[in-house]
Amino acid sequence: MPTKPGKPRSEGIRAQNLARVLTLLHRSGPLSRAELTRLTGFNRSTVGALTTELGRLGLAYETEPAAPARAGRPSPRVHANERIAVLAVHPDVDAVTVGLVGLGGKVHRRIRHETERCPSVAEAVDITRTVVGGMASSLALMDRVIGIGAAVPGLVDSSDGSVRLAPHLKWEDEPLTTALQDALGLPAYAGNDATLGTLAESVFGAAVGKANVVYLNGSASGIGGGAVVGGVPLGGAAGFAGELGHTLVRTDGLPCHCGRRGCLETEVNLGGLLETLGLGHADLDELEAAMEAAKDSAAFRAVAGRQLDLLGEAVVNFVNVFNPRAVLLGGFLGALWAFDPERLHRAVAAGAIGGLGGSVEIRRAALGADLLLVGAAELAFSPLLSDPAALSNAISSAEQHG
């Protein structure tokens, strides 16, 4: 492919090389120059020039290495600059959570703003703006905030970030990213929360290095999911794949908003756990504390056991269909699993065909309450990771003329 007039081919190659190094630092953590040389296949002088350029752009910095284990000059360690940050937003039926996330997936701040009812798009954006305004001290410590990512419990059009349908929030054809961008003056991006959770766990959490994974996330708005098969996240023809919460687990079950009965997210739900615990709202830490306190309650054990059995029905289906190496459970599903992990393991081992259930790893997502914020942040970091120099220079120029 010919290069654009006035833009040397070598400049394009250098941009690709910068992107590769910054992405490695972002996803793998601090690496020595020697490790970068090995992982990229570039020669030492090229790696040195690239890390120097990333430092000039303010995207990376170097530290002295620990004492060498053997003779020879130790290689400096290169870090992605965690003070280059984005805002991450997760609207749900009972709260809007806002985070400040730096390069490398570092969550500097997380604030959960509870709501009395489902927030509208305008209310969610207004809450986000208010919460960000209260983060002044944390924002002042950042070198730069470059964008906004939103994790939405619904169908999101990846082409423009609009929410096609988020039934629990009662959102339909809502221009969420436009509203966020207008309110905060930063480029905004949005995606399905469970898909972004799958991405976050694959990059920073329990699914690192695993090519075949099913991920399920449970929140107040229901259950979503995602699958990585052969290292490729399943998106579907229109990008809406992963509605695993609508897997049938009980033929005579409760009616679901989708029009069917007995869907996983209808039968296994946070509301049922909270009601039995005598709670109206709870974040993940509060939920787990309450579940621990109720571990000797026969009533709660019966509700939790029933939900675990029905979750097992769904996981058996996913193991049969996707043959994953691991099934990861996020949100309240992770807390439910931790309450009685062996019950779920036994159900899956006994139900899956060909002994597949006995070999699959079932565990909770590693990122905990930060999971969806880290996933949303990946959307906002994507342009920077694709072309570090171009985006960094453009932002600097805009700041100088602002």
Automatic annotation (TrEMBL):
Superkingdom to which the source organism belongs: Bacteria
Gene3D superfamilies to which the protein is assigned, alphabetical: 3.30.420.40, Winged helix-like DNA-binding domain superfamily/Winged helix DNA-binding domain (1.10.10.10)
Signal peptide positions on this chain: none
PANTHER family from the UniProt entry: BIFUNCTIONAL UDP-N-ACETYLGLUCOSAMINE 2-EPIMERASE_N-ACETYLMANNOSAMINE KINASE, ROK (REPRESSOR, ORF, KINASE) FAMILY
Protein family according to the UniProt entry: Belongs to the ROK (NagC/XylR) family.
Name of the protein: ROK family protein
Lineage, opening ranks: Bacteria, Bacillati, Actinomycetota, Actinomycetes, Micrococcales
